[in-house]
């Protein structure tokens, strides 16, 4: 799908979907910033093969050096999943005894550049709420591993009942994490927190509202990153609210003044308002407090082989 066609669709539909009035941005408390920087390191660790194809009981580590706080914590893999399904959904469940947290992390795609140019984003009914529709690929990526993940997650949470449950992901991993968190909350874990960095749109209006109303959602975008702009609004997709919009450049230290908290399933003051999605803007996709996909391997295959 050429970007000229995407641009035409975006330009034709966007004006009619603008919010009726500007939504005021909120400030980020300084104590939250450290949490944002911490949890993205677990998302970064999901790209490292040794973590998503590792051994239960081993310590998490990042060969790219982009998860120092995770490496410093007493964190061990409790369950990992990869290369077992047609969707190649990969990730891990980890137990962080230092910070008293159980983490479910989903790896982002190695083929995201090809995905950006793909116009096919069909809907499916996830069975989460009335009139709710999810993007088929993202939902299926969760559905194919759900039974195994939930079985192990329930066991780990039961064994660590005083720990918080956190679901994380970057890029397409964030899209899967968003739908997984929504599902998990309805399956005995209502307080699960979601940290979704650079997530694409995954839901129609009804589902986005359902997930927003669940609360505990932290969805991050960065300047003109093209991934959160897809699938297109013209296709009926919108975002979970709020948006934590990072305005600083690539590879710089993010401060509280560099983040705007924006409400609404469509908000033109944030990433959505920075223009049509283009490959030229892809550099912004890497930088979310860290080089989030620093462990990514060479090439961008649809499904990795070992």
Automatic annotation (TrEMBL):
Matching InterPro entries: AB_hydrolase_fold (IPR029058), AB_hydrolase_lip/est (IPR051299), Fungal_lipase-type (IPR002921), Mono/diacylglycerol_lipase_N (IPR005592)
Domain Fungal lipase-type as annotated: residue spans: 104-233
Keywords carried by this UniProt record: Hydrolase, Signal
Keyword Signal applies: yes
Pfam families xrefs: Lipase3_N, Lipase_3
Signal peptide: 1-18
Any single biological process term in GO: lipid catabolic process
Organism superkingdom: Eukaryota
GO MF, one annotated term: hydrolase activity
The UniProt record lists the keyword Hydrolase: yes
All residue ranges annotated as the Mono-/di-acylglycerol lipase N-terminal domain in the record: 17-76
Stored PANTHER family: FUNGAL LIPASE-LIKE DOMAIN-CONTAINING PROTEIN-RELATED, TRIACYLGLYCEROL LIPASE, PUTATIVE (AFU_ORTHOLOGUE AFUA_6G06510)-RELATED
Protein name (Swiss-Prot/TrEMBL): Mono-and diacylglycerol lipase
